[in-house]
Design brief:
The protein folds into two domains: 259 residues, Aldehyde Dehydrogenase, Chain A, domain 1 (3-Layer(aba) Sandwich), CATH 3.40.605; 191 residues, Aldehyde Dehydrogenase, Chain A, domain 2. The chain is 37% helix and 19% strand. Strands 14-15-16-13-12-17-18 form a seven-stranded mixed beta sheet, with helices on both faces. Strands 9-8-7-10-11-19 form a six-stranded mixed beta sheet, sandwiched between helices. It has a three-stranded antiparallel beta sheet with strand order 5-6-20, with no helix packed on it. Strand 5 and strand 6 form a beta hairpin. Helix 1 runs parallel beside helix 7, helix 2 packs antiparallel against helix 5 and helix 3 packs across helix 4.
C-alpha cells in the first residue's frame, strides 16, 4: 500500500465547467450548470457543466465520426494497448489529486477515494490494455469446400452511464473493455459527482486517445441520460444504477434503434453465517461488507443471515464494532467512514430506518443522523444495526444504499438459503463455513452472480462481476465483459473444388 499524503495539505484542482466533445473542451449549448456540493460540509464546490440533448447529440456525432473514419477502430491492438497503458499510468500518477476531488465531491474518505476508486480504475485500464491484444476469432469446421471463420468486431458507439458511489472505478469498468476492442464512447457521469469524469477525459487526451473516441457529458439523468439512451446513433448502452432507471432504458431502446444494453442494478446481498464458521473472520467480513464506503456499494452485504447457534455472539460483536467506528471528516486520516453522498440520499436512508422500526425490527445501535460537532453541517449517518429482522420487512427487501445492517436469525441451513434467495435481487452473496466442500455445494444454491466463500467484497479485473434477477444482466470485468462491446461476424469463402 503506497504512503499517502495528508490530504489537508493538498490544494484541490477542479476541471472547468465545460464538456469534452470531439477532443475539445466546450461550453454546453444551453449554458447550463450543475451545482456540486461537498456532502461532508454542505459547502458548494465549483460548478460543473450540465449537458442537454443538444450536447449529447454533438457528442454522439463526434463519437460516430471517430468510429467510422477515425484511427482508433482500425488501429492495431498493440497500438491501442500502448495508449491504454499510458492512460492507466497517468491516472495512477494523478491518484492523490483525483482522490482529493473525489473525496470532497462524494463524501468518502480520502484513503478510500485513492485506494478504492482511483487506484482500481488505473488497474482496470491496465488490465484491458493487455486484453486488447487477446481478442480472437475462430475457424469453423463446416462441411464442404469452404473456409469459414468468425471475427469479433467492435459494436460501435457506446453510451456509458455511471453512478456516484465509485465514479472513476465504475467508469473504467466500461471504458476499459469498450476502448480495448475499438469502440468509441460517450460517458455520462452522475450529476452528483461530475468532476473526476471530466478529469478522466482530459487524461485520455493526454495519453493519446484520438479526438472523439471519449466524450464526457455530465448532466441530469432526465436530460443528458435520456437523450443518450434514446439517440438512434448509439449502438449500445452500459448502465450501472437502479432498476427503475433500467426500465426506462429498456423502453428507450425499444422505442428507437433496439440498442444493446448491459445493466448492473444493485442488490440486497446476503451474508450467510453457519454454525461452523470462523467467527472472527465472519465478523470482519460482515462488518466491512456493509460499512465499507458508508454502505454506498452495489453489492453491500446488507443482510446477515446467521444460524441461531452463532447469531447472538455474531450480532453482539457487530454492534460493538459499529459503535466504535469513527465517522467524521473524510480528509482526516483517522476517519473510517465519511458522509453520505447527499442530503437526499441521507433522507432516503433515514426513511427506511423508520420503516424498520415501525415494522418491528429491533434497533440495536445507530438509526439516526450523526450531528456530533462539525458533522452537523454534513450528511452523516450513524452506523446502524437492526436485529431480529424478518424477510417481509421493507429493510430486508429494498436496497438502502447506506450503512444499515439487517440481522436475521435462522434455525437451519435450508432456512438460511431460502432467505438468502428471498429478494428480487441477485447480485452477490457471502457464505461462511469451515467446510469448504460444503460451501461449494451451497454456492450453487444461491441465486447470485457472485458468491464469496469465507470472504466478502473481493474483486479482481480478471473476475467477471454482475447479477441475476433484477440485479441486471451482462458482466463487467474479465474477458467476459468484451462480449458486451463486440459483435460476431461470420465470413464464408468458397474454395476451389
Amino acid at each position: 500500500m503506497p504512503k499517502l499524503s495528508d490530504p489537508r495539505s493538498l490544494t484541490p484542482s477542479f476541471p472547468p465547467p465545460q464538456l469534452l466533445i470531439g477532443g475539445t473542451l466546450r461550453d454546453p449549448v444551453e449554458g447550463g450548470r450543475l451545482q456540486v456540493v461537498n456532502p461532508a460540509t454542505g459547502e458548494r464546490l465549483p460548478d460543473a457543466a450540465a449537458a442537454t440533448a443538444a450536447d449529447v447529440d454533438l457528442a454522439v456525432k463526434a463519437a460516430r465520426a471517430a468510429f467510422e473514419s477515425g484511427p482508433w477502430p482500425s488501429m492495431t491492438p498493440v497500438a491501442r494497448r500502448r495508449v491504454l497503458r499510458r492512460f492507466a499510468d497517468l491516472l495512477w500518477q494523478k491518484r492523490e489529486a483525483l482522490g482529493l476531488v473525489e473525496s470532497l465531491n462524494n463524501g468518502k474518505t480520502y484513503k478510500d477515494a485513492v485506494l478504492g476508486d482511483v487506484g482500481p480504475a488505473a488497474a482496470t485500464l491496465d488490465y484491458y490494455a493487455d486484453v486488447a491484444t487477446k481478442l480472437e476469432g475462430e475457424v469453423l469446421p463446416v462441411p464442404g469446400p469452404f473456409h469459414t471463420y468468425t471475427l469479433r468486431e467492435p459494436v460501435g458507439v457506446v453510451g456509458a452511464i455511471v453512478p456516484w458511489n465509485y465514479p472513476l472505478s465504475l467508469a473504467t469498468w466500461k471504458l476499459g473493455p469498450s476502448l480495448a476492442v475499438g469502440c468509441t464512447v460517450v460517458l455520462k457521469p452522475s450529476e452528483l459527482t461530475p468532476h473526476t469524469a471530466m478529469a478522466l477525459g482530459q487524461l485520455a487526451l493526454e495519453a493519446g486517445l484520438p479526438d472523439g473516441v471519449l466524450n464526457v457529458v455530465p448532466g441530469l439523468g432526465h436530460q443528458a441520460g435520456e437523450a443518450l439512451a434514446r439517440h438512434g446513433d448509439v449502438d449500445k448502452v452500459s448502465f450501472t444504477g437502479s432498476p427503475r432507471t433500467a426500465r426506462a432504458l429498456l423502453h428507450a431502446s425499444a422505442d428507437t434503434n433496439l440498442k444493446r444494453l448491459s445493466l448492473e442494478l444493485g442488490g440486497k446481498s446476503p451474508q450467510v453465517v453457519l454454525p461452523d464458521a470462523d467467527l472472527d473472520a465472519a465478523v470482519e467480513g460482515c462488518f466491512w461488507g456493509i460499512f465499507g464506503n458508508k454502505g454506498e456499494v452495489c453489492n453491500a452485504g446488507s443482510r446477515v443471515i446467521a444460524h441461531a447457534q452463532v447469531y447472538d455472539a455474531l450480532v453482539e460483536r457487530l454492534v460493538a464494532k459499529a459503535r466504535a467506528l469513527k465517522v467524521g471528516d473524510p480528509l482526516d486520516p483517522s476517519t473510517e467512514m465519511g458522509a453520505q453522498v447527499s442530503e437526499k440520499q441521507l433522507t432516503s436512508i433515514l426513511a427506511l430506518v423508520e420503516s424498520g422500526k415501525a415494522q418491528g425490527a429491533k434497533l440495536l445501535t445507530g438509526g439516526a443522523r450523526d450531528t456530533a460537532g462539525a458533522k452537523a453541517k454534513g450528511a452523516f449517518m450513524q452506523p446502524t444495526v437492526f436485529g431480529e429482522v424478518k424477510s417481509s420487512m421493507t429493510i430486508a427487501q429494498q436496497e438502502i444504499f447506506g450503512p444499515v445492517l439487517c440481522c436475521m436469525r435462522v434455525q437451519d441451513e435450508a432456512e438460511a438459503i431460502a432467505l438468502a434467495n428471498d429478494t428480487s435481487y441477485g447480485l452477490a452473496a457471502g457464505l461462511w463455513t469451515r467446510d469448504v466442500a460444503h460451501a461449494h455445494a451451497l454456492a450453487r444454491k444461491v441465486k447470485a452472480g457472485v458468491v464469496w466463500l469465507n470472504c466478502f467484497g473481493e474483486f479482481d479485473d480478471a473476475a467477471p462481476f454482475g447479477g441475476v434477477k433484477t440485479s441486471g444482466w451482462g458482466r463487467d470485468l474479465g474477458p467476459h465483459a468484451l462480449e458486451q462491446y463486440t459483435q460476431v461476424k461470420t465470413v464464408w469463402t468458397q474454395l476451389n473444388r
